[in-house]
Amino acid sequence: MARTMGPVRLKKTSPTTVAVGAALCIFILYFLLGSSTSDFSASRKATAALHPLSPPTSPFRQSTSGGKPKPPPVMRYNLNNVTITGNPVENNENILVLTPMARFYQGYWDNLLQLTYPHELITLGFIIPKNREGNAAYAELDKQITKTQKFAPEKDRFKSIIILRQDFEPPLSSQDEAERHKMQNQMPRRAAMAKARNSLLFTTLGPATSWVLWLDADIIETPPTLIQDLAHHDRPLIVPNCFQRYYNGEKKKMDERPYDFNNWQDSPTAQKMASEMGADDILLEGYRDMPTYRTLMAYMEENGGDVHQEVPLDGVGGTALLVKADVHRDGAMFPPFSFYHLIETEGFAKMAKRLGWQATGLPNYKVYHYNE
């Protein structure tokens, strides 16, 4: 027997439900109609370069509203107008100061602030490892940057500051001086350092850059006129002599000693050693187990000697190294592999020389390294 049902009563829809449904329909229609346009995701948009050193890279996005927005500008850089001279202040030449930083030293920052080169022409670039020490260094660096860029007098503020975090783990767990200089740690340590330098260089070198000053984070004392003094020689690569102050127990007073042994002139002995090495082996300087008998600039210093005296070099260190930007633009970088049995800064000097750029040293012009 069929049963007859009474009238069905529909529950009244709330205004909130109607609003949500309408919004969902609009979203679906926008997605379907807009999927054929050239719009980009938020993550793609976020990668667009906004830094003044970089050309605008935000892609042209069509408008779905019928209007046509202005396309991004075409940037033109005439590198023939970028001067690189022995008078960089007079010619308003931009300096890029690059520092790989595993630890923060207050003396480094204080010395940087005392440089007399116009700060509005200086861009600072840092690369910091992703580990506990790197995090601590970043925190301290950030404090000093904020203090300088926000609260210091205008003349002390730098043109711009760029900080990178390494996308690879450092090979050494400790940055203590004794651990860093162990012979068995040199190949992995310096290969990692070369990668860090290259990442920093290729990210920050702008079309208006005239000079690149490589300055280690543990260089805490230089003449205030460091940039002008080095650039005055108008050499493609030039390095001062790096020393270290310490307390001499025998003399009962403060003294100084050579520190950077990577500034050298090659020797027949070293060349013979290299000829007998495997393809991936590297020569190291300053180790008793590997006597190269190279002529080291560290021992060329003459007390009271002419600070402008020049010597040609075959290898350089990176504690304080001024490079014409054209040397890097020509392709000279820091090999993280055995390059003619050299690596990192010494390999860079070799690569630059193969490109026609000669390295120069100043044995009587000194900068000072932190003493742990």
Give the CATH topology.
Spore Coat Polysaccharide Biosynthesis Protein SpsA, Chain A
Query: What is the count of distinct domains?
Result: 1
Name the CATH class: Alpha Beta
What does the radius of gyration come to?
Answer: 28 Å
Tally of DSSP β-strands: 12
Overall spatial form: globular
- Relative helix content: 25-40%
Q: Which tags fit this structure?
A:
Spore Coat Polysaccharide Biosynthesis Protein SpsA, Chain A, 12 strands, 372 residues, 10 helices, ten-stranded mixed β-sheet
Model description:
This is Glycosyltransferase family 62 protein. It is a single-pass type II membrane protein. It is found in: Golgi apparatus membrane. Keywords: Golgi apparatus, Membrane, Signal-anchor, Transmembrane, Transmembrane helix. Strand 6 and strand 7 form a beta hairpin. This protein starts with 14 loop residues before the first helix and ends with a strand. It is α/β, with parallel strands linked by helices and 372 residues long. The protein has ten helices and twelve strands. It has one domain: Spore Coat Polysaccharide Biosynthesis Protein SpsA, Chain A (Alpha-Beta Complex).
Secondary-structure blueprint:
Layout: H1 15-34, H2 42-46, E1 94-100, H3 106-113, E2 122-128, H4 132-151, E3 160-165, H5 177-180, H6 186-204, E4 209-215, E5 219-221, H7 226-231, E6 237-248, E7 253-258, E8 264-265, H8 268-275, E9 295-296, E10 311-313, E11 320-324, H9 325-329, H10 344-354, E12 359-369
Parallel strand pairs: 1-2, 1-4, 2-3, 6-12
Antiparallel strand pairs: 4-11, 5-12, 6-7, 6-11, 8-9, 10-12
